[in-house]
Amino acid sequence: MPIMSISLSKFAPIAIFASLFSLGNLITLDSANAYSVDFSNGDFQSSTSLDGPAGWTGTGSTDIGGTYSGVDFNGTNQGIITTACPSGNLTLCLNDRNDDPGTNTGTFNLRTQDQISASPEIAALQTQLGLSANDFSIQREIDGTPLVDTEGNPLYRLPKEGSAIFQDITITNDNNRNTQITFNWDFLTNDGAGSLGDKDFGFISLAKIDENTGQPDISFAPIVISLEDSTGSIPTASGNNYQTNTSPYAAFSDDYDLSTGQYRVGFGVIDVDGVGNSSALLIDEFLVEDVPFEFTPSTGIGLVLGLIGLKKLRHRFKK
């Protein structure tokens, strides 16, 4: 069989174009002006205000403070969110309601404000976070196994009420870089799991907000991620500390495809099924940034091709 001979010179123009295109992409992707994000007080140190101008807005039983229920991340301030009623007679917490029998009424409430309704019918908390009415109706689980009915349809939890902190962040993303969200969190609870599976849960939510109207941008599907659930038997509450600490300060990190715009990031905790036995979520070291540039094999090949292309052009100009 004759051996075919291919002249590499015929493909030189194509190789030069492809290599320069690869190098150009690398330079563009690494542009310092391609990505920026505007948010404040992610470590909860610059202000303890939850009134918005300092970064975070609180709704329900929320606070920024130091060690809580015997827990802190690094000995400094953290975001604190609970589902406990204060003492008194408020909108949801009627007739001095005590969420945690065995403790004094209001023990786990943070600022004499009751929780916000999270039921799909009212959805007051969902509205404040830019979410849809059913976004807290996550599937029921027992020991990590999703529950279904006799026909195989998912069974969903019934959110009752909750509290949250949130902040609007602004992202400029000209080159479609991925956005990385990181933070540290801890879920505390006096609740457990019932016959229908896990109940209370802590969450992070993400919604896009139309900067002109202040309303949710329907082109973006809101994200709600359950960080941890109340599981096991319901403990007997006593003292001033939560009885169960399921995940002592864990780290969260994930990447998202977020275009230029304004986004509302929320952290909170939801009472499910009943409203007794409160839970809490602690948050610290919240950070939003573009995904660091990685020198992968493919980018390495692109760089090599780019350098080869430049060398060939230089050789041609010298002739």
TrEMBL record:
This is Uncharacterized protein. It comes from Hyella patelloides LEGE 07179.
